[in-house]
């Protein structure tokens, strides 16, 4: 992979704003929200709680996206930092709905975030008439304010009702699922292309039930932007990571990149190119109750399409000719 470049101080600050924004909202706004309940300003949080109760199902009914948020200038600074790009191999017709496999997960999923949750790389111009939705953990939408931020960017819940709603109401919806899930984050180390996919077949069954086309994607460079400390499965740290996942739904990964000073270690990702290649859609019939044989058939076709997509583009994006894509 290409060597990392040294980012400007402004780009670094813009990049840090994104992952830290979740923490800032949770640790600052949440306590403030609770505090206001015990002050003379209690009607404000009380009104929000009442509205939250009425709005509780919105994340499972298409969300509430905002073109203004998706076009914030901060996203272009994140795009330029690496840089991040998107490549279309085939047009997507607005007359169909699509279920997109997002591979690999990486640690912070920079490529999928920038390409599908913002307009920094010009998704709407590249795929006119298509509305992207990137699915994430459902419990994020139970946190006040965080849910508003996520929905504004077009992020949806990975719950079955939320996905069913998007694939059955109108057309032109593209629902992206990080199929490998949080378990794949532990596979995120440089110079590896290992995906957790062989037994992940639920997304194929859902696509068949709705007659949605499957779209394979692969983000080159996603696993190159951080180094990760891997622990043996018998170690205490690995057991802690597993326990953390059972409680919070994702792994506590120990990773590092670069800092503001060249040659030193920090939490900034390495500024290495990230490119998401969107493959050709795989048409599926609509079957209300697909058999396991039918699911297996289209799952195999999907894996084959993803493998071909990787092989066709790997040398262009920094992988060697001998680099193989492995499925676990």
UniProtKB/TrEMBL annotation:
GO MF annotations, alphabetized: long-chain-alcohol O-fatty-acyltransferase activity
Membrane-related topology note: Multi-pass membrane protein
Enzyme Commission code(s) on record: 2.3.1.-
GO BP annotation list: lipid metabolic process
Example of a GO cellular component annotation carried by this entry: endoplasmic reticulum membrane
Signal peptide: none
Pfam families linked: DAGAT (PF03982)
Subcellular localization, as worded in the UniProt entry: Endoplasmic reticulum membrane
Top-level enzyme category: transferase
InterPro entries: DAGAT (IPR007130)
Record keywords, A-Z: Acyltransferase, Endoplasmic reticulum, Lipid biosynthesis, Lipid metabolism, Membrane, Transferase, Transmembrane, Transmembrane helix
Main location per the UniProt record: endoplasmic reticulum
Membrane is among the record's keywords: yes
Family matches, as PANTHER family: ACYL-COA WAX ALCOHOL ACYLTRANSFERASE 1, DIACYLGLYCEROL O-ACYLTRANSFERASE
Family stated for the protein in its record: Belongs to the diacylglycerol acyltransferase family.
Full protein name: Acyltransferase
Source organism (scientific name): Papio anubis
């Amino acid at each position: 992979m290409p060597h990392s470049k040294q980012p400007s101080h402004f780009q670094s600050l813009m990049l840090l704003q994104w992952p830290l924004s979740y923490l800032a909202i949770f640790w600052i706004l949440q306590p403030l929200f609770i505090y206001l309940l015990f002050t003379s300003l209690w009607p404000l949080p009380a009104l929000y709680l009442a509205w939250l109760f009425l709005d509780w199902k919105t994340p499972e009914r298409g969300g509430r996206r905002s073109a203004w948020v998706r076009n914030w200038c901060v996203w272009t600074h994140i795009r330029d930092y690496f840089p991040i790009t998107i490549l279309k191999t085939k047009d997507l017709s607005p007359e169909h709905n699509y279920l997109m496999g997002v591979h690999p997960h990486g640690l912070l999923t920079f490529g999928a975030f920038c390409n599908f949750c913002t307009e920094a790389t010009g998704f709407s111009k590249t795929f006119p008439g298509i509305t992207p939705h990137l699915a994430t953990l459902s419990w994020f939408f139970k946190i006040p304010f965080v849910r508003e931020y996520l929905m504004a960017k077009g992020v949806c819940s990975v719950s079955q009702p939320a996905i069913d709603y998007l694939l059955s109401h109108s057309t032109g919806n593209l629902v992206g699922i990080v199929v490998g899930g949080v378990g794949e984050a532990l596979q995120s180390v440089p110079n590896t292309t290992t995906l957790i996919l062989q037994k992940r077949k639920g997304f194929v069954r859902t696509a068949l039930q709705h007659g949605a086309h499957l779209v394979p994607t692969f983000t080159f460079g996603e696993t190159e932007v951080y180094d990760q400390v891997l622990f043996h499965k018998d170690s205490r740290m690995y057991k802690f990571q597993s326990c953390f996942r059972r409680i919070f739904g994702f792994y506590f990964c120990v990773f590092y990149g670069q800092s503001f000073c060249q040659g030193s270690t920090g939490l900034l990702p390495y500024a290495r190119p990230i490119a998401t290649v969107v493959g050709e859609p795989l048409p599926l019939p609509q079957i209300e109750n697909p058999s396991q044989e039918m699911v297996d058939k289209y799952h195999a076709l999907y894996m084959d399409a993803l493998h071909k997509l990787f092989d066709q583009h790997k040398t262009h994006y920094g992988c060697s000719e001998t680099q193989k894509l492995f499925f676990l």
